[in-house]
Every structure is written in C-alpha cells, then in structure tokens.
Request: fold
Amino acid sequence: MNSTGSTPEERLASLGLSVPDVAKPVAAYIPALRTGNYVFTSGQLPMRDGQLITTGKVGGDVSPEEAVECARLCALNAIAAVRAVIGDLSQVKRIVKVVAFVASTPDFTGQPGVANGASELFGDVFGEAGQHARSAVGVPVLPLDAPVEVELIVEV
Reply:
C-alpha cells in the first residue's frame, strides 16, 4: 500500500509506471485547463507513444480485461495532462470527479468495472485524495474508435 511520505510520482514508480508525455490532442482543444483551484482535463484516450493500444467495442472486439487496461492508461494520460498544468502532482488535493466513457456493444453492461481501471489507479497514486465521484457511461463510438475515454476534475 502507499507509504504516507511518498509522492504520487514515487507511488507510480512503485507500480512500475511513470508519467508519460502528454498525449497530443486529436482535434482543436488543450489537454487540461486550470481555473481557480481546479484542473479540468479533456477526455484522454488509451494512447501510448502516440498510438491507441487497441480499438473497437467492449463486449465485441475488446475484452473487459483489455478495456480495464485501456481505462488505466487513460487515467495515466490524464495524470500527465494535470501534471503539465500544475507542475507537481503533490499539489493535487483531490480527484473530484472521474467520467469514463466506454464504447461498447448494446448488450455490454460492465461499464463500471471498466471504469475501475482508472479509479483504482487514482486510489493507488493519490491515496485518500484519489477517492472521487464517478460516472461510467456506455457510448456507441469514441474518437479514433477508442474503446475508453476518461476525463477528470481535480482540486489543487
């Protein structure tokens, strides 16, 4: 579990992860914006090195397990977008709200389980400050045929 004195970056390292470069926007927007004490991220896709790690619909071409991994990568990309705006992840007071969009087949109802891939990472990285309100929404399609997209509201 998290040691109290460790930073979010140290907790990521203990999970074998590091904050990636901010994913380049796929349209006309910025990855994250700070207003007052809040940072709002744009929807983050499961991109690694500029490419989606998989495409398709959850419950179809994409297994629930693959979708959980996608949500985790979306969360990591959202963390990168937040850090790019605030500089130091130790400034995060709370992950306030997480919205996970899951492109899924009409009969797939496991969106909350997919979203747990993101939620659990935020808990591992930010401890109690990573506990958040959340929506997990099934949608017919996402940009670039991504299976999952995650956005955040963060208090700093």
Observations:
- The longest helix spans residues 64-86.
- The chain has a mean pLDDT of 94.
- The helical segments are 8-14, 64-86, 111-126.
- The first strand starts at residue 32 and ends at 35.
